[in-house]
């Protein structure tokens, strides 16, 4: 079994082009505008998106026949990690969450008519979307418990329910909404829900508020759905396939998050080392002190593990193999490593790191979200354990549950 993550020459060229564009164009352009000047900020982003299109750096995750770059997941890892050196980088390349996951979902599950109406505007960058599954009354990590109901009334569906933490809802032109259509099946049944496409705005879709988080109000909405009427043609992926569709969407999306988190962790490690090389205290530079060296070493080792886990999981997706365990492991490990590495970087910066004079404080606020986004740590641990036990029961060995690697 050969494991070789060396990029082909054409993909290495793409990586260099993305890095050059992000470092040389995107970051300098956004430094010239204030985020609180919303109009100027948005104009700058749209100019950068036009440049990305012109330079062939648009939709790295989509097939070429749909206007994308046609990259596999291994190649996408290097694009996402380069783009995420700045928060808006993935947005400029049109490979940001939640639209990225919704594009994959529509490409796989939508009818031809639905693709033209909903997928095409996403790909062209003229519309945004959201994915409405999580509810406040039930565990978000168990979508079989969804209480939002869709009841058939002639050739229409009447939907009522309550959603929250619906990212991008206030900017979305449509939503992929998960609702319970099978009312008489036992709780926990995976075939009880259906996905619907909802044009926004809609009188039955009430955006109550943006949920205030530890890093402010940043687009995660609470939604109340009251007598929302949709036709049969609004169903996405077939009746009863809501759970399957959601899991299909979340697998690669989790790994895409990891790709972006690796970039943030690497930025934090770079800042940690730079600070250690330039800060003098108690007779020597911080870089010469063993306690600081250990923080750097632990971070470097973790980042190495993160990169290998993500690349290996991505390679399994590209090969069409079962990637669920590897993606769960990567998602759990990378999210926790991001938190630890940013925390160490703050420690090395001292009071400066705790202030907002560097990006570390905001990075740390966002990093905490990573441990429950797209599945809480404990859910991934439960699934990893279940698959490890099942592997041993089936073969007498846990090898297949630890990557199936030749060692």
Automatic annotation (TrEMBL):
UniProt-listed InterPro entries: Acyl-CoA_dehydrogenase, Acyl-CoA_Oxase/DH_mid-dom, Acyl-CoA_Oxase/DH_mid-dom_sf, AcylCo_DH-like_C, AcylCo_DH/oxidase_C, AcylCoA_DH/ox_N, AcylCoA_DH/ox_N_sf, AcylCoA_DH/oxidase_NM_dom_sf
GO molecular function: acryloyl-CoA reductase (NADH) activity
Annotated Acyl-CoA oxidase/dehydrogenase middle domain residues: 130-227
TM helices/strands, residue ranges: none
Keyword Flavoprotein recorded: yes
Chain ranges of the Acyl-CoA dehydrogenase/oxidase C-terminal domain: 240-387
Cofactor: FAD
EC numbers: 1.3.1.95
Boundaries of every Acyl-CoA dehydrogenase/oxidase N-terminal domain copy: 9-125
Subunit structure: Homodimer.
Family classification: Belongs to the acyl-CoA dehydrogenase family.
Protein name listed in UniProt: Acryloyl-CoA reductase (NADH)
Organism: Nonomuraea coxensis DSM 45129
